[in-house]
């Protein structure tokens, strides 16, 4: 009788171990397909190697020299907030692929002319096709007049003098003015480089 119980216990133990192995394999496959887009962990490992061998394209990060120029024109400018807006914009434009990832966003230039100011960002992104593709994009975020508004539409509330595009104060009497022409920020350009 004792031997019979021992045999049952051994069988039950073996079945338990087999079930555990089966369960772990299934979990590993699910994990593999969730994170690497393939059910085969070896293929996923090769994929990672390829991704490492294909180095991310370098970004032209000039934040240290560009940001002070931007802050001179826009004292309240919040670079962290704007970078999050750039990420949201990229996600909206390029994020249709489920494996889309944004690796880095940098501020690389600030361009000024008489009618607008443009912040040039660069972003390193990737997504999986045959293998993981690394790509670099230029994004322009532009502060410009609303459509149909002329640059001479605003005048100083104190002396009536004409205000120019980027004036923070009246050039004639020095009165501080806030966004007299109602310029707005908008994304104007997205291109792979
Ligand atoms: Zn004035």
Write up what this structure looks like:
The structure is a single chain. With 193 residues, the protein is an alpha+beta fold. The chain has two domains: 2-53; 63-192. Helix content is 39%, strand content 24%. It contains four helices and four strands. The protein has helices at 2-36, 41-53, 63-73, 79-94; strands spanning 101-112, 116-128, 132-144, 184-192. It has a four-stranded antiparallel beta sheet with strand order 1-2-3-4. A hairpin with a 3-residue loop joins strand 2 (116-128) and strand 3. The model has no long low-confidence stretch (mean pLDDT 80). Bound molecules: zinc ion.
Tell me roughly what share of residues is in helical segments: 25-40%
Task: Give the C-alpha Rg.
Answer: 29 Å
What fraction of the residues are assigned to beta strands by DSSP?
15-25%
Please trace the helix and strand order, writing H or E for each element: HHHHEEEE
Total strands: the figure is 4
Average pLDDT rating: 80
Shape: rod-shaped
> What characterizes the major β-sheet?
4 strands, antiparallel
Order of strands, main sheet, comes to: 1-2-3-4
Low-confidence stretches: none
User: How many domains make up the coordinates?
Assistant: 2
* Secondary-structure class: alpha+beta
The tally of helices reads 4
Question: How far from one another are the termini?
Answer: 78 Å
Distinct small-molecule ligands in the complex = zinc ion
